[in-house]
Write a structure and sequence with these properties.
two-stranded parallel sheet; 55% helix; 2 domains; 6% strand; 509 residues; 22 helices; Fumarase C, Chain B, domain 1; Fumarase C, Chain A, domain 2; mainly alpha; single chain
Length: 509
């Protein structure tokens, strides 16, 4: 596990991606003074004796209840234990680690009032691979991701479970094994740990990072499908896209031109192709995929801002000894970003499935029915296309915007919520579906090109075909199809397809 210096408030998406992939963040030592000053400000605020939400009052609808000084530590412990009320399957370890890192960066900006030792414990847990077991359901995205973050905070005080190297242990035991002591919460600390958007943001960022590989692979498989169907490259002419001016569309068209450059398959029918226009799934790739790219970049910009912000409540301003209550915990920006990612994922898979359907239909593709040399005796790609259709429909159902939903909570104190956690949590499953669709297209497009024996595609696409054929031979007769799909999907997920093609496209994040 590699270490990476985290500079809170100025962390790039590339750094967040590295943490998601396994890097252990360490705070820039320059954060220490402002963390300490923030904690000291809480003590000065308490000394003033005035009621301050979440520091010496109850929470939510109980904010009018004043808490005595002797019970302040108990108040913070109680909020963690009472709010650790999530349910459902445990969140994936990489997502929880990213959530922890996001919380670490937020606390380290000196606006949350937590002590240096609290930040140090969170940092040490990340460094030692201690990941709280966090149920995936239970947040409505305001007042922050209370239930998921409470499970993280509970593990820090020795309650609940922690996963270490694939083993689930009681939190206190896991901390002890790592030479760490459970945290004893001080004033404001429980609330600071569990209030914020880090669970929603972590899930949205994780999906964004997974979608990068899927999007790039889909450009490659789209070009390969165009080759298999002997489609035209005219719709990718730069002049067409410059007239419309959308950045993503222009870049996708350029990428497709580059992927197909030098193709003997395309050259073989450039002058005698009877088709005036190809189906939209081929012809409109720049328009559809370009729009998806623009949408993903917009979501990435929102999430980068959110990841570098402070989203708990109240916020501590040490220079004036003020604790200001606001609504930074409301995850509406994350909800909108998650909905944008969902739409993009859905459309990436949808147009790819249409290309698969086109390839298996001899009336549209000019290829043998279902891409098998002996249709009838063999079913070929008949059911893989059905699987792709099923996955696309599943993603359509999941793509309904979560951000338009709201349900009042906390006795109507929290009367409008973002549903960001739900919106973000669905995305990894949607990305898995889209990846499987692109994997099927990779197999189908390569199979289609195999029928053009004696003609090679471009150097980039031939490299992709060679990559696939090193693991999956041509389907000359029916065989157990599932292993072929798994192998192709793995190539898509790990970014090998785009890498083999040498795809030169500016990144999403």
């Amino acid at each position: 596990m590699t270490d990476m210096i985290l500079n809170p408030g100025a962390v790039s998406l590339g750094h967040w991606r590295a943490i998601y992939r396994g890097a252990a963040p360490r705070l820039d030592p320059a954060c220490a003074p402002r963390i300490a000053e923030s904690a000291e400000a809480v003590q000065r605020i308490l000394a003033h004796g005035a009621p301050v939400y979440g520091i010496n009052t109850g929470f939510g609808k109980l904010a009018s209840v004043r808490i005595g000084d002797a019970d302040l530590a108990t108040l913070q412990r109680n909020i963690v234990l009472s709010h650790a009320a999530g349910t459902g399957e445990p969140s994936p370890v990489p997502v929880v680690r990213l959530m922890m890192a996001l919380k670490l960066a937020s606390l380290a900006q000196g606006a949350s009032g937590v002590r240096p030792e609290t930040v140090a414990l969170l940092e040490a847990m990340l460094a030692k691979g201690l990941t709280p077991v966090v149920p995936s359901q239970g947040s409505v995205g305001a007042s922050g991701d209370l239930a998921p973050l409470s499970h993280m905070a509970a593990a820090m005080i020795g309650v609940g479970e922690i996963e270490v190297a694939g083993e689930r242990l009681p939190a206190a035991d896991a901390l002890a094994r790592a030479g760490l002591a459970p945290l004893e919460l001080a004033a404001k600390e429980g609330l600071a740990l569990l209030n914020g958007t880090q669970f929603s943001a972590a899930n949205a960022l994780a999906a964004l990072f997974e979608t990068e590989s899927i999007f790039q692979a889909a450009l490659v498989t789209g070009a390969l499908s165009t080759e298999a169907a002997k489609g035209s490259d005219t719709p990718f002419d730069a002049r067409i896209h410059e007239l419309r001016r959308h950045r993503g569309q222009i870049e996708v068209a350029a990428a497709l031109r580059g992927l197909m450059a030098g193709s003997a398959i395309r050259a073989s029918h450039r002058d005698d192709d009877p088709r005036v226009q190809d189906p939209y799934c081929l012809r409109c790739q720049p328009q559809v995929m370009g729009a998806a790219l623009d949408l993903l970049r917009q979501a990435a910009a929102t999430l980068e801002i959110e990841a570098n912000g402070v989203s708990d409540n109240p916020l501590i301003f040490a220079e004036s000894d003020e604790a200001l209550s606001g609504g930074n915990f409301h995850a509406e920006p994350v909800a909108f970003a998650a909905d944008m990612i969902a739409l993009a994922i859905c459309e990436i898979g949808s147009i790819a499935e249409r290309r698969i359907a086109m390839l298996v239909d001899p009336a549209l593709s000019g290829l043998p029915a279902f891409l098998t040399p002996q249709p009838g005796l063999n079913s070929g790609f008949m059911i893989p296309q059905v699987t792709a259709a099923a996955l696309v429909s599943e993603n359509k159902q999941r793509a309904y915007p979560a951000s338009v939903d709201s349900i009042p909570t906390s006795a109507n104190q929290e009367d409008h919520v973002s549903m960001a956690a739900h919106g973000a949590r669905r995305l990894l499953a949607m990305a898995e579906n889209a990846s499987a669709v692109i994997g099927i297209e990779l197999l189908a497009a390569a199979q289609g090109c195999d029928f053009h024996a004696g003609l090679s595609s471009s150097a980039a696409l031939e490299a992709v075909r060679a990559l696939l054929r090193a693991e999956v031979p041509m389907l000359d007769h029916d065989r157990h199809f599932h292993p072929d799909m798994e192998a192709a999907n793995a190539l898509v997920r790990r970014g090998a397809v785009a890498e083999a093609a040498g795809l030169a496209l500016p990144g999403i994040a």
